[in-house]
Amino acid sequence: MDSEELVLLAARWEFGLIRPHDLHEVAGELLERGLDKPALIELFSLSKEAAPWEGPALFDQALRELGAPSAAELRDGRVVARLMARAILGGETPREVCQQASRYYLASGYRSADLGGFYALDDEYGSLDHGLSFSGRTEQQIDEDARTFARDLLGAGV
After folding, report:
1. 23, 24, 46, 130: most buried by Cβ count inside 10 Å?
2. For residues 12 and 50, what is the distance between their CA atoms, to the nearest angstrom?
3. How far apart are CA 154 and CA 49, in angstroms?
4. pTM for this entry
């Protein structure tokens, strides 16, 4: 698991996109990938019934063992926004990245202005009808705005 995947895993947990009932399965998937940290092993060894109750603390411990950012670092969304900006500038489809970032923004309770920029772009992508958005722009124009937003985020040291 590379560092970006680890950040997104930790963010999904922090923002509630991974639920306590999912932890047994998540631990199993991570173990299958060779991430045999003690807390993951202990989490996976819990019964599926016990995992939702005892698993959150073990999963937090496993994330620390793996070197994930802390919950406090993730809470304002800047770390995730930076990853999303890098993805766009690295050639990923801006529309798909904005859609993914929007999920984090919504799950964060609308707390992150940086993720909110992606959310606004996703909203405009979602309005495309007959090639134009609600503001009369094409998908290519929105893509360029997404790239500009990404450059601005990274240039601002987000």
Report:
1. 23
2. 21
3. 43
4. 0.79
